[in-house]
Design brief:
Helix content: 40-55%
Structural class: alpha/beta
Distance between the termini: 39 Å
Largest sheet: 4 strands, mixed
Strand order of the largest sheet: 5-6-8-7
Number of helices: 13
Order of helices and strands: HEEHHHHHEEHHHHHEHHEEE
Shape: elongated
Number of strands: 8
Radius of gyration: 24 Å
Length: 308
Amino acid sequence: LKVIFHGEEGVDEGGVKREFFQLLVAELFRSDYGMFKRLKHSGAYWFASHGSLLSGDDGEYLQNYFLTGIAIGLAIYNGVILDVNFPCLLFKKLLNENVGLRDMNELDPNVYSSLRSLLQYEGADLEDVFMLTFDHSTEDFGKVSTVELIPGGSDVDVTQKNKIEYVNKVVEYHLTTSIAKQFRAFARGFVTVVNGKALELFSGSELELVVAGEPDLDFVALERAALYEGGYSSSHRTIQHLWRVLRSLKLPQKQKFLKFVSGCARAPIGGLGKLRPMLKIQRHADLSLLPQAATCFCTLLLPDYGNE
């Protein structure tokens, strides 16, 4: 893709395209659409259950999941790292890898811990201690819904004999049943763009890196690989001030700086030393200006300030 924003003169050498995808993703994941929910413990996105909103395979919501899958696939096809946080579970499902109880820890550590405790409990008084039946409650956007895991499950107690079946049913509900239509539509959109033998080369964790890049930002590697123009060099006083300031920033500020100069807040596979195009710091003559950036070329226009 080559992207042009209406009313702007930016030449797309990669930066404009990255910005387009970031804006697109930010729009798709808006909470008022109710398509994805943010997991409280990690901030990652996961499919909302929706319940009655998903009344048919051709519904508007399912079409939007299909289009979201296409957008993620197009980003991979165009080599764009997305500032979007999915659990690795999503990519394992896209690759048809086996998922199970351990993956519940990504979605809900509390449910995972409770299920583990249930499996490990050997007392004969399990029914009195846990007081569980074969139903399960979940919450999406403040709405609590309860489903029966088996027919008549609300009247079936969880015992030592059937606790493994109960755990399997809860895991299946969270990872598969409750989001089956949504995931199927998303996956159909994804493989419309990215499919065939190429996908077979990846594991779930590797595909996650291709989509979302490296979460860790090594600014030492970025400094080591940076280029300079207009009289600047690695030994110039202003450049040394700049890197001293950047190294002192907290992670959220580093992410904002990286997004400001490159259009993406995450590092490519291999870290910031592999950023393409590489960060270029160019001297700007007007000391009255704030720093400016040309994301098309990953260039920082930096006036020669006198101090940090």
